[in-house]
Every structure is written in C-alpha cells, then in structure tokens.
Amino acid sequence: MTTAGGAGETRSLGGGPERRPGHEERRCPACGAALTDLRPSYRIGDWAVVRCSSCGTGVTVPEPDEAVLRRMYDEPAYYETHGIRHSDVLPDHRARARVVDAWAPGPRVLEVGTGEGYLLAALRDEGFDVRGCEISAWAAAAARERFGLDVFHGELAAAGYGPASFDVVLMYHVLEHVSAPRRLLSEAWQLLRPGGLLIAEVPNLDSAQMRYGRRAREHILDLPFHLVHFTPTGLRTLLARQGFRVLELTIPFGPPFGPVLAVYEALRRRRRASGGEPSTSTGDRERSAGRAGPSVGRREGSPDRPGCGGIRLPADEGEHVRERSMRVTAWKARILERLRAVSSAYKMTAYAERLEECPPSGGG
Fold first, then answer.
1. Distance in angstroms (rounded) separating the CA atoms of residues 364 and 349
2. Are residues 117 and 151 in contact, defined by beta-carbon separation less than 8 angstroms?
3. What's the DSSP call for residue 175?
4. Element (H, E) at 50
5. Do residues 92 and 201 lie in contact, with contact meaning Cβ atoms separated by under 8 Å?
6. CA distance 43 to 26
7. Beta strands across the sheet bearing 47-51
8. Phi/psi of residue 212, nearest 5 degrees
9. What's phi and psi for 329, nearest 5 deg?
C-alpha cells in the first residue's frame, strides 16, 4: 500500500519512496558479476535484498528512484529519524577525527557526505584544511551556518575540485547510499594525490548483528535508503578494482563477547609492542588469532641461555612439543575466530591507499 506524496510521486507507508516498475538485469556493484539468483535474502515491506553469488554483496530490489531519495535527504525529518542530529554524536566525531589524524598523510581533507558538518568541524579543530561535499541542501546549509565550513551542495563530479587536490578523502556511510559506487570511487581517485588515503565506512552485511538481531538487521539494511549492502570481500574487491590498496579493514567487536575480545586484542597489542609476541603481519586487522609457539627443542637449561645448565631435549620429545604447540595454537585460533564470528559489529572501515599505477575504471 502507498500514500500520496508530492506531485507525480507516491510513497510507501514505511516512509520510503515508491519502487520503480519492472526489473532489469543487474550486475553486482562491487565485483561486476551478474546477479543471477534473484531470490531475496532479506525482505522488509516492499523491498528486498538479493546477494551476489560471487562476493556476497547485497543489492536493494526493486531499485528505488534516487531522485526521490535525494528529496527525502533534504528533509530534516530524515536526520531526526536516523539519530544524527543530536549532540551525543559529538564525542563520536571527535574520536573519529583522532583516528583520521593518526592515518592522514597530509593536511588537505575532503569529506564526501558531510551531513551537518560535525566531523569536518572536529578535523578543522585538529588543524586540517577541510572541504565538504553534500547532496542534501538542508544539511549543507546547516554545516555552513553552524560551523562556517566550506561545503559544496551537489554531486562530487560537479564540485570543481582539481586533480590530486586532497591528501585524504572520507566517505563515512556514503557508499551504501549510491547505486554506482564505482563511479563515486573513480571520482575520489582523481581527487586524491598518489599515495593519498581513502577512509570508507559502511555497514557489514556479514556481521553477527546482521545475522542474529532482527531489530539491528532493519537498522543495518535501512531499506530503501541503502542501495548496496557490502561484505568485507565485496568492499575489498570494489576498492581494488578502482585503484586502491586496502591497508587495513577494521571490524569492531559487538555483543555478546565484544568486551572480552577487545581486552584480549589490547593485551596482544601491548605484548607485541613490548617484544613479547611477534606480530602476524597480514596488512589488516582480520588477522590470524594464533600466537607464535615457544621455541622448540629447548628448556630453561639450553646451552645458548646464559646461566643455564645446558639440558637439551631429545629429538623425538622436541617433535612432540612442536606438534602439541601447533595443536594448541590451532585450537586457540578456531575458538577466537568463532567468538569473532558471533561478535562482529554492524559496521566496517577500510583504510585504502590511492595507487598511481592502477587507474580506476568508471561505470556503475
């Protein structure tokens, strides 16, 4: 059922825009594979999510009319219902600004999807030279009036920024709102200098909160406003196709074991920093949970330790210790991965370097 909206427009009773009639064959916006299985993985009201059989990325069907969505983004009610107009977001943006400060290779920052400007204002307070781009006229005006920020209202391609104008481009919860994320990333690639940093945060379709929490699922999918629903594999694939190298992909911990895992990871980082545990260099935080086992074939009396008695293990006993250590390490890794699997939070953040030798492809 629908209710009448503005002239020439209908809206669903859930507050979203009416779907387009018909359905055309579509391709995955992340990896480019054809969406052959159109059976919905999730359905909320008139809207459903179908998933790519290659990378797992989800797509909202039927495809909403983006022009109608943009008109809805111009309404203050959208920001009220999505909980992003309240003062309690300020501490979160200040913490996010500190993360950007730790990663940024330079002072020139562009935020795509500025909203009301809280993050840009926090970054300016940290000394960054900031610009913003926002499709909502209402939000762009609020950012300019409230914080005096330089925010362009409109599409990124129309903003007029020159090539290699920025050291950092931020896209916090933006990519899921556009039907052609490849095109948007291609534009960001052009605006970043070689070696510049892209930070992109999106909901995680493979998260435990998505799988096990019904209310959280509706919030994560946010139909019909979210047009693309990313998995870690899909996000990595998309960024690689557009000329970015993912330096790190972080997935925070959520309930029920999140606090325990967070403490464990903090202790591991402290041990590695002090030299007590070697780091497993994998390029991101989705790394193996296994620690390096103890030295094999030695006890506290080995001759290469000063002040020891020089007792050496027999070869067969050393091999037994090695096998036991490997079993314990594998067991710990399996347990931790299972805990992570049921405790992954709803979002993920990619930190990606703009590559010079890999020009991005355009398209949808």
1. 22
2. yes
3. G
4. strand 47-51
5. no
6. 18
7. 42-44, 47-51, 58-61, 228-229
8. -110, -10
9. -60, -45
Q: Which amino acid is at 350?
A: A
Give the CA-trace dihedral at 242, 244, 245, 247, to 10 degrees.
-130
Question: 73-255+345-354 belongs to which CATH class?
Answer: alpha beta
Residues of the chain with pLDDT under 50: 1-23, 85-88, 278-311, 313
Q: Where are the domains of the chain?
A: 73-255+345-354
User: CB–CB of 244/185 below 8 Å?
Assistant: yes
Q: At what angle do helices 118-125 and 90-103 cross, to 10 degrees?
A: 50
Cα–Cα distances (Å) from 202 to 69, 234, 283, in that order, read: 18, 11, 19
Q: Residue 98 is which amino acid? A: R
Q: In 3D, which of 196, 197, 198 has the Cα closest to residue 174?
A: 198
Euclidean distance between CA atoms 243 and 181, whole angstroms:
13
pLDDT of 13 reads 31
Within 8 A by CB and 6+ apart from 49, the residues are 40, 41, 42, 43, 58, 59, 60, 61, 221, 223, 229
Residues 36-93 pLDDT 10s:
887 888 998 899 999 999 999 999 999 888 788 888 888 777 766 665 544 445 568 8
Separation CA 320–CA 325 (nearest Å): 9
Which amino acid is residue 196, in one-letter code? G
Determine if residue 228 is left, alpha or beta; phi over 0 gives left, psi from -120 to 50 gives alpha, anything else beta: beta
For 348-360, the DSSP string reads: EEEEEEEPSSSPP
**199 Cα distance to chain centroid:** 8
Assign 299 to helix, strand or coil. Answer: coil
What is the spatial distance between Cα 77 and Cα 296, in angstroms, rounded to a whole number?
A: 64
Amino acid at 170: L
Q: Are 111 and 170 in contact (CB under 8 A)?
A: yes
3-state secondary structure of 34: strand
Q: Which residues contact 322 (CB under 8 A, 6 or more apart)?
A: 293, 296, 297
Calpha distance 230→206 (Å, rounded): 8
Query: 312, 297 in Cβ contact below 8 A?
Result: yes
